[in-house]
Amino acid sequence: MIRVAVGILQRGDGKTLLMQRLPGTFREGQWEFPGGKIEAGENSRSALERELHEELGIEVGGARRRITLRHEYPGKTVLLEVWQVTHYTGQPRNIEGHELRWVEPAEMRRIGMLDADWPIVTSLELPATYVITPSPPTDDKNASAQWLDHLEQTLDLGISLLQLRCPAWSASDFGRLAKTVAHRCEASGTRLLLNGAPLQILPLSERLGTAGCHVPARCLEQLASLKKPAGLLVGASCHSAAELAAAARANADFCMLGPVLHTASHADHAPLGWPGFSALVKKVSMPVFAFGGLAPNDLETAWSHGAQGVAGTSGFWRQKAGACAVAGNQQR
Protein backbone atom coordinates (compact mmCIF):
# COMPACT_ATOMS: atom_id res chain seq x y z
CA MET A 1 0.00 0.00 0.00
CA ILE A 2 1.24 3.47 -0.92
CA ARG A 3 0.61 6.10 1.76
CA VAL A 4 0.11 9.64 0.46
CA ALA A 5 -0.07 12.91 2.40
CA VAL A 6 -2.56 15.33 0.82
CA GLY A 7 -2.93 19.02 1.62
CA ILE A 8 -6.12 21.08 1.38
CA LEU A 9 -5.28 24.78 0.96
CA GLN A 10 -8.22 27.18 0.92
CA ARG A 11 -8.44 30.93 0.43
CA GLY A 12 -10.75 33.34 2.18
CA ASP A 13 -13.17 33.19 -0.77
CA GLY A 14 -13.62 29.45 -0.21
CA LYS A 15 -11.67 28.34 -3.28
CA THR A 16 -9.28 25.38 -2.97
CA LEU A 17 -5.91 24.90 -4.66
CA LEU A 18 -5.55 22.18 -7.29
CA MET A 19 -2.55 21.18 -9.36
CA GLN A 20 -2.42 19.40 -12.72
CA ARG A 21 -0.39 16.23 -13.10
CA LEU A 22 2.67 16.57 -15.32
CA PRO A 23 3.06 14.99 -18.79
CA GLY A 24 4.57 11.53 -18.64
CA THR A 25 3.29 10.81 -15.12
CA PHE A 26 0.54 8.45 -13.94
CA ARG A 27 -2.84 9.90 -15.03
CA GLU A 28 -1.12 12.83 -16.73
CA GLY A 29 -3.22 15.96 -17.23
CA GLN A 30 -5.70 15.16 -14.44
CA TRP A 31 -6.21 17.54 -11.55
CA GLU A 32 -5.42 16.67 -7.94
CA PHE A 33 -4.83 18.16 -4.52
CA PRO A 34 -1.19 18.93 -3.65
CA GLY A 35 0.83 16.30 -1.80
CA GLY A 36 2.86 13.18 -2.34
CA LYS A 37 4.15 9.86 -1.09
CA ILE A 38 5.08 9.36 2.54
CA GLU A 39 8.64 8.05 2.57
CA ALA A 40 9.83 5.14 4.71
CA GLY A 41 10.38 6.28 8.30
CA GLU A 42 8.48 9.54 7.70
CA ASN A 43 5.25 10.47 9.46
CA SER A 44 2.27 11.93 7.63
CA ARG A 45 2.61 15.50 8.92
CA SER A 46 6.33 15.66 8.04
CA ALA A 47 5.59 14.33 4.55
CA LEU A 48 2.90 16.99 4.11
CA GLU A 49 5.32 19.77 5.04
CA ARG A 50 8.06 18.40 2.78
CA GLU A 51 5.82 17.85 -0.24
CA LEU A 52 4.13 21.26 -0.07
CA HIS A 53 7.51 22.95 0.26
CA GLU A 54 8.93 21.03 -2.71
CA GLU A 55 5.86 21.47 -4.94
CA LEU A 56 4.58 24.91 -3.93
CA GLY A 57 7.41 26.62 -2.06
CA ILE A 58 5.34 27.22 1.08
CA GLU A 59 6.02 26.52 4.74
CA VAL A 60 3.18 24.80 6.58
CA GLY A 61 2.59 26.48 9.93
CA GLY A 62 -0.60 24.72 10.99
CA ALA A 63 -2.62 21.71 9.83
CA ARG A 64 -5.16 19.25 11.15
CA ARG A 65 -6.21 15.86 9.89
CA ARG A 66 -9.31 15.97 7.71
CA ILE A 67 -10.11 12.44 6.49
CA THR A 68 -8.39 9.18 5.57
CA LEU A 69 -9.37 7.44 2.32
CA ARG A 70 -8.41 4.22 0.55
CA HIS A 71 -8.45 3.88 -3.23
CA GLU A 72 -7.78 0.87 -5.45
CA TYR A 73 -6.05 1.42 -8.78
CA PRO A 74 -5.24 -1.51 -11.09
CA GLY A 75 -2.18 -3.08 -9.52
CA LYS A 76 -1.83 -0.74 -6.54
CA THR A 77 -3.63 0.60 -3.48
CA VAL A 78 -3.22 4.11 -2.12
CA LEU A 79 -4.10 5.39 1.34
CA LEU A 80 -4.74 9.14 1.27
CA GLU A 81 -4.06 10.87 4.58
CA VAL A 82 -5.73 14.22 4.00
CA TRP A 83 -4.78 17.33 5.97
CA GLN A 84 -6.57 20.68 6.20
CA VAL A 85 -3.79 23.28 6.10
CA THR A 86 -4.86 26.02 8.50
CA HIS A 87 -1.81 28.28 8.21
CA TYR A 88 1.12 28.61 5.84
CA THR A 89 3.65 31.21 4.79
CA GLY A 90 4.69 32.04 1.25
CA GLN A 91 2.74 32.24 -1.99
CA PRO A 92 1.97 28.88 -3.69
CA ARG A 93 3.81 28.70 -7.02
CA ASN A 94 4.48 26.00 -9.60
CA ILE A 95 8.03 25.08 -8.62
CA GLU A 96 7.94 21.70 -10.38
CA GLY A 97 6.01 22.90 -13.44
CA HIS A 98 2.48 21.93 -12.43
CA GLU A 99 -0.32 24.24 -13.51
CA LEU A 100 -2.09 25.57 -10.42
CA ARG A 101 -5.70 26.65 -10.13
CA TRP A 102 -7.93 27.92 -7.30
CA VAL A 103 -11.42 26.46 -7.74
CA GLU A 104 -14.73 25.95 -5.94
CA PRO A 105 -16.01 22.39 -5.27
CA ALA A 106 -18.72 22.80 -7.92
CA GLU A 107 -16.04 23.51 -10.55
CA MET A 108 -14.13 20.38 -9.46
CA ARG A 109 -17.16 18.39 -10.61
CA ARG A 110 -16.64 19.69 -14.14
CA ILE A 111 -12.91 19.10 -14.61
CA GLY A 112 -10.83 15.95 -14.87
CA MET A 113 -10.04 15.09 -11.24
CA LEU A 114 -7.81 12.18 -10.29
CA ASP A 115 -10.02 9.19 -9.42
CA ALA A 116 -8.71 8.86 -5.87
CA ASP A 117 -9.49 12.51 -5.12
CA TRP A 118 -13.23 12.47 -5.82
CA PRO A 119 -14.15 11.59 -2.22
CA ILE A 120 -12.12 14.60 -1.09
CA VAL A 121 -14.33 16.79 -3.28
CA THR A 122 -17.36 15.32 -1.49
CA SER A 123 -15.65 15.99 1.84
CA LEU A 124 -15.28 19.66 0.91
CA GLU A 125 -19.03 19.81 0.29
CA LEU A 126 -19.88 18.31 3.69
CA PRO A 127 -19.80 19.97 7.12
CA ALA A 128 -18.02 18.63 10.19
CA THR A 129 -21.25 17.97 12.09
CA TYR A 130 -24.32 16.08 10.90
CA VAL A 131 -27.45 16.52 13.00
CA ILE A 132 -30.09 13.78 13.20
CA THR A 133 -33.56 14.69 14.44
CA PRO A 134 -35.19 12.77 17.27
CA SER A 135 -38.43 11.20 16.14
CA PRO A 136 -41.28 13.64 16.91
CA PRO A 137 -44.38 12.42 18.77
CA THR A 138 -47.38 11.47 16.65
CA ASP A 139 -50.16 11.58 19.23
CA ASP A 140 -49.47 14.79 21.18
CA LYS A 141 -50.13 18.07 19.37
CA ASN A 142 -48.41 20.16 22.03
CA ALA A 143 -45.30 17.97 21.96
CA SER A 144 -45.30 18.07 18.14
CA ALA A 145 -45.46 21.88 18.19
CA GLN A 146 -42.60 21.92 20.69
CA TRP A 147 -40.59 19.63 18.39
CA LEU A 148 -41.02 22.09 15.53
CA ASP A 149 -39.94 24.94 17.83
CA HIS A 150 -36.80 22.97 18.68
CA LEU A 151 -36.21 22.40 14.98
CA GLU A 152 -36.36 26.15 14.37
CA GLN A 153 -33.90 26.75 17.25
CA THR A 154 -31.51 24.24 15.72
CA LEU A 155 -31.76 25.72 12.23
CA ASP A 156 -31.36 29.28 13.54
CA LEU A 157 -28.01 28.33 15.07
CA GLY A 158 -26.42 27.53 11.73
CA ILE A 159 -26.84 23.78 11.15
CA SER A 160 -25.94 23.07 7.53
CA LEU A 161 -26.85 19.37 7.16
CA LEU A 162 -29.87 17.73 8.82
CA GLN A 163 -31.29 14.21 8.67
CA LEU A 164 -35.01 13.74 9.28
CA ARG A 165 -35.40 10.33 10.91
CA CYS A 166 -38.81 8.94 11.96
CA PRO A 167 -38.50 5.13 11.75
CA ALA A 168 -41.89 4.36 13.31
CA TRP A 169 -43.94 6.78 11.19
CA SER A 170 -46.22 5.74 8.34
CA ALA A 171 -45.21 6.77 4.84
CA SER A 172 -48.08 9.27 4.59
CA ASP A 173 -47.36 10.91 7.96
CA PHE A 174 -43.65 11.07 7.20
CA GLY A 175 -44.36 12.66 3.83
CA ARG A 176 -46.43 15.44 5.41
CA LEU A 177 -43.80 16.13 8.07
CA ALA A 178 -40.99 16.04 5.49
CA LYS A 179 -42.79 18.71 3.47
CA THR A 180 -42.99 20.99 6.51
CA VAL A 181 -39.36 20.40 7.50
CA ALA A 182 -38.17 20.84 3.91
CA HIS A 183 -39.77 24.30 3.71
CA ARG A 184 -38.11 25.36 6.97
CA CYS A 185 -34.73 23.98 5.92
CA GLU A 186 -34.95 25.77 2.59
CA ALA A 187 -35.65 29.06 4.36
CA SER A 188 -32.61 28.60 6.59
CA GLY A 189 -30.24 27.36 3.88
CA THR A 190 -29.92 23.94 5.52
CA ARG A 191 -29.58 20.82 3.39
CA LEU A 192 -32.11 18.15 4.37
CA LEU A 193 -31.69 14.39 3.97
CA LEU A 194 -34.68 12.08 4.44
CA ASN A 195 -34.06 8.78 6.24
CA GLY A 196 -35.71 5.62 4.98
CA ALA A 197 -35.90 2.88 2.37
CA PRO A 198 -34.70 4.27 -0.99
CA LEU A 199 -37.68 2.99 -2.98
CA GLN A 200 -39.92 5.31 -0.97
CA ILE A 201 -37.50 8.06 0.03
CA LEU A 202 -35.74 8.83 -3.26
CA PRO A 203 -39.00 9.79 -5.07
CA LEU A 204 -40.12 11.81 -2.05
CA SER A 205 -36.79 13.63 -1.91
CA GLU A 206 -37.02 14.50 -5.62
CA ARG A 207 -40.62 15.67 -5.25
CA LEU A 208 -39.86 17.91 -2.26
CA GLY A 209 -36.55 19.16 -3.64
CA THR A 210 -34.48 18.08 -0.62
CA ALA A 211 -30.72 17.58 -0.84
CA GLY A 212 -31.05 13.80 -0.79
CA CYS A 213 -31.59 10.83 1.48
CA HIS A 214 -29.98 8.73 4.18
CA VAL A 215 -30.33 4.96 3.92
CA PRO A 216 -30.39 2.55 6.90
CA ALA A 217 -27.95 -0.38 6.76
CA ARG A 218 -30.76 -2.88 6.17
CA CYS A 219 -31.71 -1.10 2.91
CA LEU A 220 -28.26 -0.85 1.29
CA GLU A 221 -28.82 -3.76 -1.10
CA GLN A 222 -32.06 -2.08 -2.23
CA LEU A 223 -30.10 1.13 -2.84
CA ALA A 224 -27.54 -0.79 -4.91
CA SER A 225 -30.32 -2.03 -7.21
CA LEU A 226 -31.50 1.49 -8.04
CA LYS A 227 -30.13 4.24 -10.23
CA LYS A 228 -29.27 7.19 -8.03
CA PRO A 229 -30.85 10.40 -9.32
CA ALA A 230 -28.25 12.92 -10.46
CA GLY A 231 -27.53 15.67 -7.98
CA LEU A 232 -28.93 13.93 -4.89
CA LEU A 233 -26.68 13.42 -1.88
CA VAL A 234 -26.93 9.90 -0.47
CA GLY A 235 -25.68 8.88 2.97
CA ALA A 236 -25.68 5.45 4.60
CA SER A 237 -25.64 4.10 8.15
CA CYS A 238 -23.02 1.41 8.80
CA HIS A 239 -21.89 -0.61 11.80
CA SER A 240 -19.35 -3.05 10.33
CA ALA A 241 -16.86 -3.68 7.53
CA ALA A 242 -19.52 -5.66 5.64
CA GLU A 243 -21.96 -2.76 5.75
CA LEU A 244 -19.27 -0.30 4.66
CA ALA A 245 -18.61 -2.55 1.66
CA ALA A 246 -22.35 -2.62 0.92
CA ALA A 247 -22.48 1.20 1.07
CA ALA A 248 -19.60 1.36 -1.42
CA ARG A 249 -21.36 -1.05 -3.81
CA ALA A 250 -24.47 1.13 -3.57
CA ASN A 251 -22.41 4.22 -4.53
CA ALA A 252 -23.27 6.13 -1.35
CA ASP A 253 -21.61 9.53 -1.20
CA PHE A 254 -20.75 9.26 2.50
CA CYS A 255 -21.60 7.18 5.51
CA MET A 256 -22.01 7.18 9.28
CA LEU A 257 -20.06 4.53 11.18
CA GLY A 258 -20.65 3.47 14.77
CA PRO A 259 -21.46 3.28 17.51
CA VAL A 260 -18.03 4.46 18.52
CA LEU A 261 -18.99 4.59 22.20
CA HIS A 262 -21.79 2.91 24.13
CA THR A 263 -25.23 4.40 23.53
CA ALA A 264 -28.67 3.27 24.58
CA SER A 265 -30.07 3.86 21.07
CA HIS A 266 -27.67 1.23 19.66
CA ALA A 267 -27.50 -1.17 22.59
CA ASP A 268 -27.60 -4.13 20.16
CA HIS A 269 -24.28 -3.07 18.60
CA ALA A 270 -20.99 -3.44 20.47
CA PRO A 271 -19.07 -0.13 20.52
CA LEU A 272 -16.26 0.03 17.97
CA GLY A 273 -14.06 2.27 20.11
CA TRP A 274 -11.83 4.81 18.42
CA PRO A 275 -9.14 2.26 17.41
CA GLY A 276 -11.79 0.06 15.79
CA PHE A 277 -13.35 3.03 14.03
CA SER A 278 -9.97 4.15 12.70
CA ALA A 279 -9.12 0.69 11.38
CA LEU A 280 -12.40 0.47 9.44
CA VAL A 281 -12.13 3.98 7.99
CA LYS A 282 -8.81 3.06 6.38
CA LYS A 283 -10.66 0.50 4.25
CA VAL A 284 -13.18 2.84 2.61
CA SER A 285 -13.24 5.40 -0.18
CA MET A 286 -15.80 7.88 1.09
CA PRO A 287 -16.11 10.45 3.89
CA VAL A 288 -17.22 8.87 7.18
CA PHE A 289 -18.98 10.54 10.11
CA ALA A 290 -18.43 8.98 13.53
CA PHE A 291 -21.57 8.46 15.62
CA GLY A 292 -22.69 6.83 18.83
CA GLY A 293 -22.24 8.44 22.24
CA LEU A 294 -20.56 11.50 20.73
CA ALA A 295 -21.05 15.27 20.91
CA PRO A 296 -19.60 18.27 19.04
CA ASN A 297 -16.70 18.49 21.50
CA ASP A 298 -15.53 15.07 20.19
CA LEU A 299 -14.73 16.61 16.81
CA GLU A 300 -10.96 16.90 17.26
CA THR A 301 -10.76 13.27 18.37
CA ALA A 302 -12.86 12.19 15.37
CA TRP A 303 -10.61 14.06 12.95
CA SER A 304 -7.51 12.47 14.48
CA HIS A 305 -9.00 9.04 13.73
CA GLY A 306 -9.78 9.75 10.07
CA ALA A 307 -13.40 10.90 10.32
CA GLN A 308 -15.09 13.60 8.29
CA GLY A 309 -16.72 14.72 11.53
CA VAL A 310 -19.31 13.64 14.07
CA ALA A 311 -23.03 12.88 13.82
CA GLY A 312 -25.77 12.32 16.34
CA THR A 313 -29.04 13.28 17.96
CA SER A 314 -28.97 13.73 21.72
CA GLY A 315 -25.64 15.55 21.78
CA PHE A 316 -26.54 17.85 18.87
CA TRP A 317 -30.26 18.70 18.92
CA ARG A 318 -31.82 21.88 20.33
CA GLN A 319 -29.75 23.59 23.02
CA LYS A 320 -26.64 21.68 21.90
CA ALA A 321 -26.95 23.11 18.40
CA GLY A 322 -24.90 26.20 19.26
CA ALA A 323 -21.83 24.09 19.91
CA CYS A 324 -22.65 22.10 16.79
CA ALA A 325 -22.75 25.23 14.65
CA VAL A 326 -19.42 26.43 16.01
CA ALA A 327 -17.89 23.03 15.31
CA GLY A 328 -19.31 23.04 11.79
CA ASN A 329 -17.74 26.39 11.05
CA GLN A 330 -14.32 24.90 11.86
CA GLN A 331 -14.65 22.57 8.88
CA ARG A 332 -14.39 25.26 6.24
Q: Would you give an account of this structure?
A:
An eight-stranded parallel beta barrel has the order 8-9-10-11-12-13-14-15, surrounded by five helices. The chain folds into two domains: 2-113, Nucleoside Triphosphate Pyrophosphohydrolase; 129-329, Alpha-Beta Barrel (TIM Barrel), CATH 3.20.20.70. The chain has eleven helices and 15 strands. It is 33% helix and 26% strand. α6 links the parallel β10 (191-195) and β11. It is of the alpha/beta class. α4 (141-156) runs parallel beside α5 (171-188). The two termini are 30 Å apart. The longest helix has 18 residues, at 171-188. It has helices at 44-56, 105-108, 118-125, 141-156, 171-188, 198-208, 220-224, 241-249, 273-281, 299-304, 321-329, and strands spanning 2-8, 16-20, 31-32, 35-37, 59-73, 76-89, 100-103, 129-132, 161-164, 191-195, 212-215, 233-238, 254-257, 288-291, 309-312.
Question: Can you tag this structure with a few keywords?
Answer:
332 residues, alpha/beta, Nucleoside Triphosphate Pyrophosphohydrolase, TIM Barrel, 2 domains, 8-stranded parallel β-barrel, 33% helix, 26% strand, disordered C terminus
